């Protein structure tokens, strides 16, 4: 029988009532003839609570125990979902990650999936089980310890199962009815997209559109898993939601398909570093060893052998960055005048595969911002994206102005 993967996020399984509601949807797909793999998140708020308990107990926690605690939210929903389905006379059972077993690396807290053997679950499908309810977000390391896949990791569990079982589709049920041209909370003209390419979704996800974990989109792209994002709160139809698919499956699209933003960005400038081979390597090795995720990088033109180096990183990593850079300064590995942190910035980006073939998108973006009197502090581009750092207080204005200028409220 064809396999369908259905993933339910935290709000879709927030209480027993909601679990019953989504179980009915699973029942509908079973009645259509699918063997269904259901991936569940923890009830909404649960994982945050568990993380809080770990931090309170042990600020410098043992990551293996962090995973033991934090993975447990999903175990509850998996069991409850299986019970609910059984009450509806749908043959179902729950699976924790280790029972599958979903094999991961040993990188606790952010493990990567290595392998999903299909044998155990397929055997049960062969014996008449119709739904395998799998706890998302968790797996088992080569050492036999429980691991988790990073926050939002159930999306990745779902896509990985869809790839392993060659599922017809992977439906991600959430509390929004799809992927939007931008965040409807800050731009009322935001429009739901019927389709979006893997590449654009990848950019949007990593730029802060929180609807899918970035890693899940990478996997879907690599294994060509048809991914659909839809709401568990609205009536179901085959056309519902947004299909994340291959570029070739999209007939028409705007040059720009979305505007993304991230509030959580800081700009850091190292003033007056030597302009010679090895300096950038020294700086960014120290930052990476210090666990800082650097995003944008700009190096100024040098003046008498000295230059300024600017980079951006998440706001909550500023202290770590300062520590890492001060350490190499004190060890004499790097000399700089000052390190200036600007935490009142935001990143705004426009994304679209159409940019590959059409020029002038950057010029238009900069003109729109300048017409609004918004100063650009840092710019980076890729083949299908242009990002700028601006003062945070102008973020919403910038998003709205760009959404208007690129006419994203209208379909292509
Ligand atoms: N419950 C986990 C989290 O909140 C995983 C997930 O829901 O995707 O990060
Ligand atoms: Mg999520």
Automatic annotation (TrEMBL):
Binding-site residues, substrate: 47, 74
Record-linked CDD domains: AAK_AKii-LysC-BS, ACT_AK-LysC-DapG-like_2, ACT_AKii-LysC-BS-like_1
Database matches in Pfam families: AA_kinase, ACT, ACT_9
Cellular component terms (Gene Ontology): cytosol
GO molecular function, one term: aspartate kinase activity
Pathway stated in the Swiss-Prot or TrEMBL entry: Amino-acid biosynthesis; L-lysine biosynthesis via DAP pathway; (S)-tetrahydrodipicolinate from L-aspartate: step 1/4; Amino-acid biosynthesis; L-threonine biosynthesis; L-threonine from L-aspartate: step 1/5; Amino-acid biosynthesis; L-methionine biosynthesis via de novo pathway; L-homoserine from L-aspartate: step 1/3
Catalytic activity: L-aspartate + ATP = 4-phospho-L-aspartate + ADP
One GO term (biological process): threonine biosynthetic process
Residue ranges annotated for the ACT domain, each copy included: 268-353
Binding site residues for ATP: 7-10, 174-175, 180, 185, 210-211
InterPro entries, alphabetized: AceGlu_kinase-like_sf, ACT-like_dom_sf, ACT_Aspartokinase, ACT_dom, AKii-LysC-BS, Asp/Glu/Uridylate_kinase, Asp_kin_monofn, Asp_kinase
Lineage: superkingdom: Bacteria
EC number: 2.7.2.4
Keywords noted in UniProt: Amino-acid biosynthesis, ATP-binding, Kinase, Lysine biosynthesis, Nucleotide-binding, Transferase
Family: Belongs to the aspartokinase family.
PANTHER family linked: ASPARTATE KINASE, ASPARTOKINASE
Protein name, per record: Aspartokinase
Organism, scientific name: Falsiruegeria mediterranea M17
Lineage: Bacteria, Pseudomonadati, Pseudomonadota, Alphaproteobacteria, Rhodobacterales
Gene behind this protein: lysC
């Amino acid at each position: 029988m064809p396999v369908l993967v259905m993933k339910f996020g935290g709000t879709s399984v927030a209480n027993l009532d909601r679990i019953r509601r989504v179980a009915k949807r699973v029942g509908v797909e079973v009645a259509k003839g699918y063997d269904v793999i259901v991936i569940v998140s923890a009830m909404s708020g649960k994982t945050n609570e568990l993380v809080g308990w770990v931090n309170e107990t042990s600020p410098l926690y043992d990551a293996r125990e962090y995973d033991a605690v934090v993975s447990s939210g999903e175990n509850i929903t998996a069991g409850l979902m299986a019970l609910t389905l059984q009450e509806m006379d749908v043959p179902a059972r729950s699976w924790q990650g280790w029972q599958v077993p979903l094999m991961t690396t040993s990188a606790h807290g952010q493990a990567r999936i290595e392998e999903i053997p299909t044998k155990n679950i397929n055997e049960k499908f062969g014996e008449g089980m119709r739904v395998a309810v799998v706890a998302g977000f968790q797996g088992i390391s080569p050492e036999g310890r429980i691991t988790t896949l990073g926050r939002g990791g159930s999306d990745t569990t779902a896509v990985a199962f869809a790839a392993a079982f060659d599922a017809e589709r992977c439906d991600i049920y959430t509390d929004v009815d799809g992927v939007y041209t931008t965040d409807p909370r800050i731009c009322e003209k935001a429009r739901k997209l019927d389709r979006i390419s893997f590449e654009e979704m990848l950019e949007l996800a990593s730029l802060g559109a929180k609807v899918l974990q970035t890693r899940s989109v990478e996997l879907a792209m690599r294994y060509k898993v048809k991914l659909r994002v839809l709401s568990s709160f609205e009536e179901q139809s085959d056309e519902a939601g947004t299909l994340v698919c291959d570029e070739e499956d999209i007939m028409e699209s705007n040059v720009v398909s979305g505007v993304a933003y991230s509030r959580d960005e800081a700009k850091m400038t190292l003033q007056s570093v030597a302009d010679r081979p090895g300096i950038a390597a020294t700086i960014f090795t120290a930052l990476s060893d210090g666990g800082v995720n650097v995003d944008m990088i700009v190096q100024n033109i040098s003046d008498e052998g000295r230059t300024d180096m600017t980079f951006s990183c998440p706001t909550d990593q500023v202290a770590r960055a300062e520590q890492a850079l001060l350490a190499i300064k004190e060890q004499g590995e790097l000399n700089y005048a000052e390190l200036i942190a600007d935490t009142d910035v935001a990143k705004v980006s426009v994304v679209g595969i159409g940019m590959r073939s059409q020029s002038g998108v950057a010029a238009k973006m900069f003109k729109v911002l300048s017409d609004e009197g918004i100063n650009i502090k840092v710019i980076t581009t890729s083949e299908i994206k242009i990002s700028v750092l601006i003062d945070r207080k102008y973020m919403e204005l910038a998003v709205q102005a760009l959404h208007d200028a690129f006419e994203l409220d209208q379909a292509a």
